[in-house]
Amino acid sequence: MSFLDAMLGRTHASMIGLDISTSSVKLVELGQSASGEFVVERFATEPFEKGWITDGQIEKFDEVADAVRRVVSKSGTRTKNVAMAMPQSAVITKKIMLPAGLREEELELQVESEANQYIPFSLDEVSLDFCVVGPSPTSVGDVEVLIAASRKDRVQDRQGLAEAAGLKPVILDIESHASRLAMSRIVRTLPNEGKDALVALFEIGADTTSLKVLRDEELLYDRDQAFGGSQLTQLISRQYGFSFEEAEAKKLGGDLPEDYESAILTPFVDSLSQEIGRALQYFFTSTPHHKVHYVMLAGGTATLTGLKERVTDLTGFASMVVNPFEHMKLGGSVRENKVRREAPSYLTACGLAMRRFMQ
Fold it and tell me: What are φ and ψ of residue 25, in 5° steps?
């Protein structure tokens, strides 16, 4: 199992995508119709307690493994092959140029030699992989090669989680690559198939929100900021005297006191929208760009009442909530209203599940 197997297109066997974040584990299984359309066969989520995973590091292995078992059981899948991902912070990636036409063994030697320059650990301590992206855009006769490396102990933690839940890890990707793969489908549904459009994708996690600016599948900008959905949970906890876990459950279940919207939700939506506006301003001041064509919101917090409209008002840019299952058929066991409500939080898991069909 290695990082970039997915990019090399080695499987069409049944496979689930499993996204392990700070706050939950999410599972997606996709099939394909006779006409080639994606079919959402299964999706499910299981929450984590605060502190089980911190900054991408698994602190409570047994508890997380139990949650993975529960999400597999809840989904009803019988598939054992799984695609998982490492957080971006745990992976060093680098694009290098190498002469075209090298044999696989020669490529491996060159990659190891180059990797020594960029990886601040001994190569014995890391899992290293690479894939040829394509001809170099700047250097005739060369190819562009993407190197990915992560510490072996971090990789083994992810692998161990899958195995503890009775799964077989076949692909270990990078979270941001998986979400971008799912986004590429969504961008193609935009006018003119999204060609030349600057798309600002905000993935609002529990503790961190990432802004990625994409154009024609190229990543122009990538920055994380320390705000997210758990701040709303903390506000609910403080206001009403709930524990963090109670507050999270009541937030997700919509089981909150009458004054919740005016006292907490509306001010939080306003504050989050301003953070999103500031992140865009930072992008504009640190790059040659001064506008984006679309602002797309992903993550469970993206569905908060009024957020999309407030972001549009504040930024002046068309804002929409991402649904990675859009234009997919729904399998018999999938409820449409559940998809509408929860889809934005499944962007990475969906991208991982799509790896099954990559050539």
Answer: -115, 135
CB 83 within 8 A of CB 357: no
Residue 239's identity, in one-letter code, is: Q
d(CA 240, CA 234): 10
Q: Which pTM does this prediction carry?
A: 0.89
- DSSP letter at 357 equals G
Coil, strand or helix at 248: helix
What is the per-residue pLDDT for 359?
A: 52
- Interatomic CA distance for residues 240 and 27, integer angstroms: 32
* Residue 2 CB neighbour total at 10 angstroms: 17
Rounded Cα gap, residues 121 and 110, in angstroms: 18
Asked if 28 and 175 touch (Cβ cutoff 8 Å), the reply is: no
pLDDT for res 9 = 41
Other beta carbons within 10 angstroms of residue 59's beta carbon come to 11
Query: Using CA atoms, how far apart are residues 11 and 230, in angstroms rounded to an integer?
Result: 37
117: which residues sit within 8 A by CB, 6+ positions away? none
Q: How many helices (H) and strands (E) does the chain have?
A: 11, 16
For residue 6, what pLDDT band results from cuts at 50, 70 and 90?
A: very low
The DSSP 8-state label assigned to residue 344 in this structure reads G
Phi-psi region of 322 (alpha: psi -120 to 50; beta: other; left: phi over 0): beta
Distance (Å, whole) CA 307 – CA 293 = 18
Are 155 and 30 a contacting pair, CB within 8 Å? no
Identity of the amino acid at 312: T
Closest residue by Cα to residue 328 from 203, 187, 195, 186: 186
C-alpha to C-alpha distance for 160 and 163, rounded to whole angstroms: 5
d(CA 101, CA 104): 9
Instruction: Please say whether the beta carbons of 207 and 234 come within 8 A.
Output: no
CA 283 vs CA 85, 264, 286, 300, 301: distances in Å: 27, 29, 5, 24, 22
Contact between residue 159 and residue 172 where contact means Cβ atoms under 8 Å apart: yes
